[in-house]
Amino acid sequence: MPEGIESRLKGVTDQIKAAAARSGRDPNSVRLVAVSKTVSADHVLAAIQAGVTDLGENYVQEAQAKIRALGDENVSWHFIGHLQTNKAKHAVRLFDLIHSVDSVKLARELNKRSADLGKVQNVLVQVNISGERTKSGIETDLAMDLVGQMAHLENLAICGLMTMPPYFNAPEKVRPYFRALRNLQGLIRNEHFPNVGMGDLSMGMSGDFEAAIEEGATLVRIGTAIFGKRG
Predict the structure, then answer these.
(1) What pLDDT score does 166 carry?
(2) Which residues contact 213 (CB under 8 A, 6 or more apart)?
């Protein structure tokens, strides 16, 4: 096994459990998505053998090769990067959960491609909670309308929300953005849209996942803290 993956994974898992306990949550309510972008298939296999069950990829083409190489492994694959509409047909074949739906156009294409496969695709709506121009995601004040329109797409199951907050060295500075996403989740849930679950919040990465868990994250996307710094 490549050096360090097993011990780093244990450290992250222990931190997840501690953060859940601090907020009175069941640790099993938080899923660790190991972000394997640019990580070789053999290192990903080592992580799987160490206990990883969910893997996150940012690029369809890179994921395609990895999923092919690791096809016998019992894991769930998540797409967490910006998804171009012309890659939707590949994404619905490859991924169990797509975290980054941010437009009606993309949602409709995913719905169409999922229908072609006879599949209901699980998705999250990505919200640009910080309003940064460099970030993908629907604007916060437009998210409700997007969810309402997506609710009528029969081959999509909307499972919740995702965000990428601004980068800060101090996790406490990120906490208000996590809290804002949780508040938006509650507002959308209160609308009782059909076909909308709103059970998941995908937020928190290697530097701030403990604060995210304390604010309600059910999916944390962690790469560096498991695989080490990328070259």
Answers:
(1) 86
(2) 16, 19, 20, 23, 25, 30, 204, 220
Burial of 37 (0-12, 13-18, 19+ CB in 10 A): middle
Q: Which residue has the tokens 């997007």?
A: 146
Question: What pLDDT, on a 0 to 100 scale, did the predictor assign at position 1?
Answer: 55
* Residue 212: closest CA among 5, 12, 8, 73: 12
pLDDT, one tens digit per residue, over 185-211 is 999 999 999 989 999 999 999 999 999
Instruction: Look up the CATH number of the domain holding residue 142.
Output: 3.20.20.10
| Mean pLDDT of all residues belonging to the chain | 95
Percent of the chain with pLDDT over 90: 90
How many domains does one find in the chain?
A: 1
| Boundaries of domain holding 220 | 5-227
The span from the CA of 90 to the CA of 221, in Å, is 22
H helices within 95-161, ranges in order? 104-117, 140-150
